[in-house]
Amino acid sequence: MTRFMTAFIMSSILQSLSGQTLQPPVRTEVLSQATSSWDGTKYSSYPRGVPQLTVLKITIPPHTTLAWHRHPSPNAAYVLSGTLTVERKDGTKASFKTGQAISESVNVVHRGTSGDDPTVLIVFYAGTSSLPLSESAMGTMNAPTGHSHP
Fold first, then answer.
1. Integer CA distances (angstroms), 60 to 20, 45, 69, 82, 89, in order
2. How many angstroms separate the Cα of 63 from the Cα of each of 5, 84, 115, 137, 140?
């Protein structure tokens, strides 16, 4: 009797779904969740002002070293392709490859260097409308046209 009921219930479910396309479930994967940057520096707070979220796709040619710069607000990058080595002026370094996320430093001077292939990044900035995305170690760079982001 139990087999009959199970078959009947399954048949009823399948009939009610007929004509509907079954799709795979939505998948969520946490790529990064951090309270500190890649170098271990703790995040302290968000900047004050009108929030502004910015998402950039940045392509860095092979063997390119970006200028020394800093970010005045929290941001994170996802490496779509290639590799990126990020370093601070004190020599602290970390390398990231395709599929990895980078929790960027805030107000710490650093730079990035690409590897043998172009590096493509998607960068998410959580700043304010009054702040640039990136500042040169020599002065402000107007974003998003400035070229020293990661």
1. 45, 29, 15, 9, 20
2. 66, 10, 5, 21, 25
Res 2 pLDDT > 90: no
Give dist(CA 120, CA 81) in Å, integer: 5
What one-letter code names the amino acid at 56?
L
* pLDDT (tens digit per residue) in 85-118: 999 999 999 999 999 999 999 999 999 999 999 9
37 neighbors 43 (Cβ within 8 angstroms): yes
Render pLDDT for 28-61 as a digit per residue (tens, 0 to 9). 999 999 999 999 999 999 899 999 999 999 999 9
pLDDT averaged over every residue in the chain: 87
**Which candidate, 138, 83, 77, 70, places its Cα nearest to that of 110?**
70
Please give the pLDDT value at position 138. Answer: 81
Through-space distance between the first and last CA atoms of the chain, rounded to whole angstroms: 65
Residue 133: both structure tokens together:
């995305």
Q: How far is CA 134 from CA 84, 122, 131, 138, 148, in A?
A: 17, 15, 8, 11, 7
Residue 144 CB-half CA count within 13 A: 12
Q: In whole angstroms, what separates CA 111 from the centre of its chain?
A: 17
